[in-house]
Amino acid sequence: MDRSWMSIKNYLDPKYLDGVDEFIKFAFLGKDPNCKLPCPCKVCNNFEDQTKKVMANHLCRGIVDSYTRWIYHGEGFESDDENDDIEINDNDSDFDSMEELLNDVGVANFGKSWRHSPKLDTGACTEKEGEASRFPRLLSEPEKSLYPGCEKYSKLSFIVHILHLKTMNRWTCKSTDMLLKFLHQVFPTALIPSSYYEAKNFIRELGLKCEKIHACENDCALFWNENKGLDHCPNEKCKAPRYKSPNSKIPRKVLRYFPLKPRLQRLFVNKEIARDMRWHKERRVDNENMMRHPADSLAWKDFDRNHKSFAEDPRNVRLGLASDGFNPFGTMSNSYSI
């Protein structure tokens, strides 16, 4: 079902009005005409129930354009393979505009003038200089075609596309690895990675790194800072060994630490995401009788009163901590939500 009408800002556009009619028919299909359903207009935001007629009037003043999965109106969380039309966009700007992607990463890691930074000497780059110095290698990748005569995909865009499909379709690491090995054998002249590991390693410079810190297997302490050189747990009642065997350097347990600052900085590299990060201050409709965003809460407002200088800049970020298990990039068999 086409939902491009939801992003139209001209609410008198015939395509938008036809989309509203289509949505109303879908939402109230098989239901009592007098029943009330959550209204997805920009004022109600699915928090207020409205009748069919009132909802139609409300939607003529705008719909929440992020509400693309109509879960409050009969559509399931999981997609139906028989009914969903999965489109692979042929627009070069979506998957093949790697220069913009690389520019975002360069700005996030080295600043706005990163192209002229002395740290990025593409001619002097070697594998021994570390991951940060290997970033320039990716600068030339958008210019390399996947195989002779291929104008649509480079090696970089092909790998990004494959990993994107893996995430969207919940492919396992093993299935992705088998697919890449098969494609590598069938198309030996193409610049296709021979394994999932090789594909991930190739684009590692594009990602946000995590720090691996050895930990006590009984969760007593981290082998970090003053404990970095220890081979056993510093807890006198534990003393568990750090490594799996005396002659091995393989730790029994590892903590993966994801530094927060670079991830917050990355959010402001893209102008669309940066605009969304300021939404609570610049575009939010303040209604004292309705809470649709944490900014409407008493806790948020009390924080603003006590920290006025912090609240003045809409780019400042408030952090909330929640933990309910996690499944990064769909690589585990279990699915969790936070």
Automatic annotation (TrEMBL):
Q: InterPro entries annotated for this entry?
A: Transpos_assoc (IPR029480), Transposase_21 (IPR004242)
The chain positions of domain Transposase-associated read 3-75
Write down the superkingdom of origin.
Eukaryota
Q: Which Pfam families match?
A: Transpos_assoc (PF13963), Transposase_21 (PF02992)
Q: What is this protein called?
A: Transposase-associated domain-containing protein
